[in-house]
TrEMBL record:
Family annotation (Pfam families): HTH_1, LysR_substrate
Domain HTH lysR-type: 7-64
Family: Belongs to the LysR transcriptional regulatory family.
Keywords associated with the record: DNA-binding, Transcription, Transcription regulation
Name of this chain's protein: LysR family transcriptional regulator
Lineage of the organism: Bacteria, Pseudomonadati, Pseudomonadota, Betaproteobacteria, Rhodocyclales
InterPro entries per record: LysR_HTH_N, LysR_subst-bd, WH-like_DNA-bd_sf, WH_DNA-bd_sf
The organism's place on the tree of life at top rank: Bacteria
Amino acid sequence: MLSANRFNPQLLRYFHAVAEHGSLSAASRQLNCVPSNVSARLRQLEDQLGSVLLERNGPQFRLTAAGERLLPHARQLDTLCTAAWQSVHLDTLQGRLRLGSMETTAAMRLPDVLARFHRHAPRVGVELETGTSSALIERVLGHELDAALVAGPLEHPRLVADEVWREELRLVLPPGTALPARGGEVSLIVFPEGCHYRARLFNWVQEAGLALRGLQSYASVEAILGCVAAGLGIGVLPASLLEGHPRGRQVDSHPLPVHLAVSPTVLIRRRVAEPHPALDAWIEVLFGGERAAA
């Protein structure tokens, strides 16, 4: 056990997140990191304090007596850090921040991030536009958006692209439906032209030796899940969305080959741009935990 002056208070963020949300997966979503990073930081904190703070109960965690005593201090530190950050940035962080995002990312990944950013910068007006990766890239290049979350990997001489999350794409099928056999036909439910996930699904159809029977295009996650659940066709969506969306339980899913399944989500912004304190603050909040790895 270390002495108090060598204790790392940053580790309390991980403890606080698990204590509030009850699981590693939920805490990792809040902190924008993978569950293994949260678990490692918890072990490090317990080693530094010389006490067990959380006990596992299946996928959930419950506080030990030591954890119960520590939690109020972790909450106070979180409040103090927010107040300290705002005391420096509140006067400068105002105006408008124009962000773009894929529909799937906006639905499942962004609400917690937007809430944290609003607490840090309440005077900034955030405008969020959803669309396909291709359309969002053009809007960032055209100075219509300050930054966007799109499917990667991406290399462009005028853009900076940083990986934020790494998604696992899965085929989405009507309940009880088997994958069509090679040489068969398939109907697809997809996002509009320019969507990276749509392109991955078309590649799978070609590699699986299937013929396209029908195609329906929707710009809404709700519409795609609803149509697949109703038996209109097959789609492709991130596993994180299927796990967290209420309609995810109404469809079946099947893994894609690894070269089609792994899809990083990257934050893009212009390489040459005017100073934008609100965007800098957004990036700080977005990457406030640790950058996610596979």
